[in-house]
Amino acid sequence: MSVFTKVSHSELQEFLRQYPVGELLGFQGIGEGVENTNYFVDTSDGRWVLTLFERLNYADLPFFLGLMEHLATRGFPGAMPAHTHEGKSLTTLNGKPAALVRRLTGQSVLFPDIEQCRQVGRALAELHIDGQSYAGRCENSRGAAWRLETGRLIAPKVDAGARALIEDELAAQQKLDLSTLPQGVIHADLFRDNVLFVDQRLTGVIDFYYACNDSLAYDLAVTLNDWCFEPDGELNPARWDAMLSAYRGRRELTAAERTAWPLVLRAAALRFWLSRLYDWVFPRGGDMVHIKDPNQYRRILEHHRNTPPPAF
């Protein structure tokens, strides 16, 4: 359970008094997530998710919460942040920035089917379209500069094979400039555990705390890499085709995006391999902190380096 900051019953009761959400009925830590502390909270006025932000830049938090509200008011299946009696969506708890958002119905899926992949592709395109009217701006904290810096930091601490792969891929990525591709608001972390379903119906997109302004194609690559690869690093062509076709049904990729596509896929795989390696090499303290397997994304990166992506 990734809980870095513990919250007592009395502390949570006091915190909730600033919101028009009724009385506290119960709460529990959430097992997913590696960046923030999250709790499910039940009150007499509904079900909520409480997030305490552990490492995010405080100045960026209004961007995330404003984006969630922007999308929710346009019918996108995202969580609506709660506002205090004074109209604030960002507060503090136990010395950490905190936010309370409506808990969405549904569950994430570990083994998605074709229809679920199709719905995720369509939802991602809708997010990219709706996000064009959002005025907020936030740089990608895990962008090209972060990948270069983190790769150089990790390389001396891993085995020779991983070090050679990191160094070679960082050199290859110098040919890619994502800023030249169509830009907009991206989720940047639309993994399987951040999408909720009730049976075959997509009911929620959650965890917008990596959202930023960056390449739309990069966001699509991040999503495809998670949803359309098997644990052994092999591509599932049927899921890939379903998701990509659904996305393109709402937003077509440009010629520049298609040309850059092989390197974009590699950049997306490198980003998550490096972040998982970092957590492995430099572990943080916490209550049973969940560290994801970095080798999964090494296999995906190696696949993209060795195999051209399916033709459009």
From TrEMBL:
A Pfam match is: APH
Enumerate the UniProt keywords alphabetically: Amino-acid biosynthesis, ATP-binding, Kinase, Nucleotide-binding, Threonine biosynthesis, Transferase
Q: What class of enzyme is it?
A: transferase
Q: Which InterPro entries match?
A: Aminoglycoside_PTrfase, Homoserine_kinase_II, Kinase-like_dom_sf, Pseudomonas-type_ThrB
SUPFAM superfamilies from the UniProt entry? Protein kinase-like (PK-like)
UniProt GO molecular function: ATP binding; homoserine kinase activity
- Pathway(s) served: Amino-acid biosynthesis; L-threonine biosynthesis; L-threonine from L-aspartate: step 4/5
As recorded in UniProt, coiled-coil segments are none
**Reaction catalysed by this chain?**
L-homoserine + ATP = O-phospho-L-homoserine + ADP + H(+)
Q: Which residues form the signal peptide?
A: none
In the UniProt record, does the keyword Kinase occur?
Answer: yes
Tell me its EC number(s), please.
2.7.1.39
Aminoglycoside phosphotransferase domain: which residues? 28-253
Database matches in NCBIfam families: PRK05231.1, thrB_alt
Name of the protein this chain belongs to: Homoserine kinase
Q: Could you tell me which species this protein originates from?
A: Solimonas fluminis
Name the encoding gene, please.
thrB
